[in-house]
Structure to design on (100 residues):
């Protein structure tokens, strides 16, 4: 278990800081602990957030090739980061899933 702890294992896998911004995003059960490990090991300014689909998309919009996005995904990420396509309403979804 200790070998899988982000505080122990993540730092050695981080890239060099870019010329531009560094943005950390993520989702999953370990996203917060992974983000804390990146923050503790990172040399330079970083910004970001975890587990907020719309805000994550807004945060990475407009980045340039000089910027770096560190995306931290762990188990449960797909369940914690849904962003439904625009259009269908909750009533539409309920009708599609109605068991007759």
């Amino acid at each position: 278990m200790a070998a899988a702890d982000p505080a122990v294992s993540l730092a050695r896998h981080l890239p060099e800081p870019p010329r531009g911004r560094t943005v950390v995003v993520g989702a999953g059960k370990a996203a917060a602990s992974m983000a804390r490990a990146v923050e503790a090991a990172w040399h330079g300014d970083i910004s970001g957030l975890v587990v907020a689909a719309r805000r994550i998309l807004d945060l990475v919009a407009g980045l340039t090739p000089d910027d770096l996005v560190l995306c931290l995904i762990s188990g449960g990420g797909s369940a914690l980061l849904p962003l439904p396509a625009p259009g269908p309403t909750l009533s539409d979804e309920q009708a599609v899933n109605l068991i007759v």
